[in-house]
Amino acid sequence: MSASNVVVVQIGQCGNQVSEIVYDSLWEEIAQLRKLGGNPSLADRLHGTYFDEADRARAVLIDMEPKVIQGLLARKRCNQWRYDAEEKNSLFLQSGSGNSWMMGYSVLAKGQTSELAAEVIRRAAEACDRVDSFLTVCSGAGGTGSGYGSYVISEILNDYCGLKHGSACNVIVCPFERGEVSVQNYNTALSLATAVETGELTITFSNSALEHEVGGKNGGLGAINRKLARTLVDSLLVPSRLSPAGTLSEVARHLVCDPDYTVASCCSVPGMAHYEFSSDTWMGLAKELDDRWRGKSATAFLHACGVGADKLEDDVTLPFKLKSRYFPHVPHPLKMAISPVARRVPSRSLSVVATDQKALQPVAHVVRRCKAALSSGAFIHHYGGYEGEARIADAVATLNATLERSHVTLAREGG
User: Fold this and answer.
1) Quick one: 347 and 379 in the same domain?
2) Which of 350, 349, 343, 242 is nearest to 36 (CA)?
3) What is the pLDDT of residue 36?
4) Where a domain ends, among 260, 283, 313?
5) What is the distance between the alpha carbons of residues 147 and 243, in angstroms, rounded to a whole number?
6) For residue 149, which of 10, 68, 307, 365 sits 20 to 30 Å off, Cα-Cα?
7) CA distances (Å), 402 to each of 190, 242, 255, in order?
């Protein structure tokens, strides 16, 4: 039986920097599985999913500026994974995207550039035994990841998955609430709406929420990117391969079994016994996850990993099985997976990916800001006048409908 592979399509500065940390984290997981002993088959399965036989990442690198990609390709990694240094799976130009979604989607994506993007994705796919999923990682705020990322998601990958029966999973990083660029909310609304309209799983991360989790601004973007990558790896990328749940596409199909609910969040709680005053018991992890995972969900994928995971008591999993936690229209909203293996230190973790109200909080913020800006016509000239304004209004309407289905309100922000 051929292995199933995941191709990471990393777009723009944010997508490329986060994805590099994702691969570092995956490599660490593989090394730990082999080091701890007894799990060589799991290590090989994880390796084959994300790396080829020459330890090259199954990745596509795209940016409209060369600096970030050239830096990634040139980086030396002793006895570790690497990108394809021959640039077969890379696309970078000298133009930039001007922090405009319209520039990336409607200008740069036309003509030869679109053909080049389709070609590098095709080459990466053909190097696989069987493409299970494409995982796209990009920023919504602006730059290449926003408009050009939307083009890749909606035009290239959507067509490819439709023809080849693979699936796509989109990770979109929402900007700081207090601003990165003046048009960031328009860009993010257009990016999110494009992803939602594909009907594929879309995972949102908020830079503001991540900054709070890492303890404020002291760590900078590096700490935020590491937190994002680690959460994605711990809650979705590793569990979908270690557990009997199967593959990333099978987990994604469960999460988006209702096409009206496709926006998800990730949360992972690792054991913290090596820290003072912390608990590494399954009950302690369950209480922490229960506290972080708030609001109703349509569907969820819960994963328990570590020694003793196959002997969990009902009290540990009961809070996650309560019907009151889910919207009533999905008959079997919760998919649980157990991996009784020691991945690394700490030796156990609980994680969840859920199409929930939490995932829509950054969406609600963006919609609220867009409505306020549209009412005054602010910054519309960046989007080509009326055509751009109509496109933004359509995107806001799409996202507003998504919020209403999950009963997420546009309450005023404090302060």
Assistant:
1) no
2) 343
3) 65
4) 260
5) 35
6) 365
7) 14, 32, 15
What's the whole-model pTM score? 0.92
Burial of 389 (0-12, 13-18, 19+ CB in 10 A): middle
* Tally of domains within the chain: 3
The alpha carbon of 402 is separated from its chain's Cα centroid by a whole number of angstroms, namely: 18
**353 and 216, same structural domain?**
no
Considering the domain architecture, whether residues 30 and 141 belong to the same structural domain is answered as yes
The confidence score (pLDDT) of residue 37 equals: 62
What's the confidence (pLDDT) of residue 384? 75
CA distance readout (Å), 319 to 28, 32, 272, 314, 407 = 31, 31, 21, 9, 21
Q: What is the mean pLDDT of each run of 10 residues along the chain (415 residues)?
A: 82 96 92 75 90 95 93 84 88 80 83 86 91 94 90 84 74 87 92 94 95 82 94 88 75 92 93 52 91 93 88 89 93 89 72 95 95 91 79 96 89 50
Do 63 and 170 share a structural domain? yes
Domain range for 353 is: 265-359
Q: How far apart are CA 11 and CA 88, in angstroms?
A: 15
Q: Tokens 């209480």 map to which residue? A: 287
**pLDDT at residue 33, rounded to an integer:** 83
Q: What CATH code is carried by the domain that includes residue 339?
A: 3.30.1330.20
Q: Residues 6 or more apart from 329 whose CB is under 8 A from it?
A: 258, 298
